[in-house]
Design goal:
Layout lengths: L1 E2 L5 E2 L46 H6 L4 E9 L6 E5 L1 E6 L6 E2 L12 E6 L4 E6 L6 E3 L2 E2 L4 E2 L5 E4 L2 E7 L11
């Protein structure tokens, strides 16, 4: 290390004079790639549709991600709305990122108030309490652990009461179709 007359330290193996005090070669300077105040068109790179996405087993096996059931809001701010359930875990919450988005109900946790899962192997649905602060109920009983769902069970999250309607059951599965 070397020190110039102004007190700057620099590596004498890389620089013959202080790079802070003397005019520096443009190879060392940071310069804009395009002229300043000119816009450069954005170059969209072609990315495969499913790049970086987790693909469900059914979508991979049969080419689609079909509904396996539904929940229909029978009371609360979303009364009359239906929500499609797919295989795997369906997150219930207020955020638009949730599979069952109850955005108009301020009493629903934003993320993962509850989870409704469908397992292809066992052909069964489970209601799982989420990580949000809100409590989930199934048929007026608090859900503290994974609870098996049956047709026409009533799920309560916030002010919404959701009627559970399975499509896949002992009568039908997408593997048989």
């Amino acid at each position: 290390m070397n020190q110039c007359s102004k007190g700057h330290f620099f590596d004498e193996k890389r620089f013959s004079e202080c790079p802070y005090c003397s005019p520096v070669d443009t190879a060392i300077k940071t310069v804009p790639q395009q002229p300043i105040n000119k816009t450069t068109p954005f170059q969209q790179k072609t990315i495969p549709e499913n790049f970086g996405k987790t693909i469900g087993i059914m979508k991979k096996n049969i080419g689609i991600d079909p509904p396996v059931g539904f929940v229909v809001c029978i009371s609360g701010p979303h009364k009359g709305e239906d929500f499609r359930l797919t295989s795997g875990r369906n997150m219930v919450g207020r955020s638009s990122r949730m599979d069952v988005c109850l955005s108009s109900d301020d009493t629903v946790s934003r993320e993962e108030h509850a989870i409704i899962s469908y397992d292809i192997k066992s052909n069964a649905f489970l209601l799982i309490p989420g990580t949000g602060r809100g409590i989930t109920y199934c048929n007026d009983k608090q859900v503290e652990a994974a609870t098996e769902l049956a047709a026409y069970d009533i799920i309560e999250v916030g002010a919404c009461r959701l009627l559970f309607l399975p499509l896949c059951s002992e009568h039908f599965t997408w593997h048989e179709a």
